[in-house]
């Protein structure tokens, strides 16, 4: 598929061109998800009465009022104890993100995942939506368009929803596709992602084969590595270094990296290191844009605390069932019956059946097995 990303020019810290070797691990244990770490920092630091810290972190978070933007034209809000969150990775090239390519005045959703948290908040399913999926995009208010409306239409790439109408249009598009109301929205951009990984001290992965992609400036031999922020960003953006060079292979890499991140074990005593706590909370809150229900440290902390019990082993990750478009192999089209199986399962708060993805072009190939956290 055509790639809209461009090379990252920062040089990763590594041995020559081979990536920084991973240091020996200390005792392994399940780590909290990154947002829960941030929440812990907020609670600990805010509890000390350091008002500046609270308001500094509170001011970091950018919020979007999705409810006001979409009004009542939305799926029913079912209160069954589950939650559905749309998570987007923005490929904006404005500001500090300019190093990743030419700023053409609009951003697209480079990565899109629907996270379904089951009742009890002990397990989750994640459905990745390929950005090149051809869909029927609904009518949306144009972002910064002074009341203008984009009519949408058939055979529109999924990631153009964010480009046209920002977070509200992305949420509206997902809700029209799935029939599921999104409870929350979380967006992370390139620069914020990189800074967050660096603040953590890197992410440990093992590559089963070399990964080399000149477009993302990624050059990793087979073996164990601790990826810094620039390298981690290169990994989740690469598509030509592994598999068939498609966005479907890149999604598998992204899913593998997320699991590695969730399993991350670093020899860092966060609660005994106030500066580390603050730096992590500062980086996390600066990296994200959320819906208005999460745009305060209090609300974000409460939300993250409800997710902290979900480890990578309790998270099922799939790609939306698709097939290559016969008219354009650089695009994919939804498998409607299989997609409906996915949406019906999530609506019923049940696991996604294996049969839903049997005929899908997603989740195939070896790309997802190239990176592990072992």
TrEMBL record:
Domain Cell envelope-related transcriptional attenuator: 108-266
InterPro entries recorded: LytR/CpsA/Psr_CW_biosynth (IPR050922), LytR_CpsA_psr (IPR004474)
Superkingdom: Bacteria
UniProt KW Metal-binding keyword: no
UniProt biased composition (Basic residues): 13-29
UniProt keyword list: Membrane, Transmembrane, Transmembrane helix
Pfam families: LytR_cpsA_psr
Disordered: region residues: 1-29, 346-374
Biased composition, class Basic and acidic residues, residue ranges: 346-362
Entry's transmembrane regions: 31-55
The protein's name: Transcriptional regulator
Source species: Streptomyces lasiicapitis
